[in-house]
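Backbones bend. We report:
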Amino acid sequence: MATATARAADGARGAAPLDLGRAIDIHPSVGLRPERGGALAYHYGTRALHFVNDARLAAVLHGLSAHASAGAALTAAGVPAELRGAYSVALGRLAAAGVLIERGTS
């Protein structure tokens, strides 16, 4: 029998790309710890641990609150235009997993 965390992870794998025009923040219950080559995101409410294995994606996550949109955070982190689709999918998966929320909701 699958655990709740495993079911949430399975649902996140099929997540839709994030709309990069939206203002996004890290969920207030999520701690983001820098690691070599990326970051660890721990959700204190669900006890889920998410590995971010891309240093540039970790930089995007750290910069979300300072930018008007997720797209602006990608630009500030130096994500090339040809990779924005892949980063949108990665952000969508993190949003589906509860790591990210739309600004103004919690």
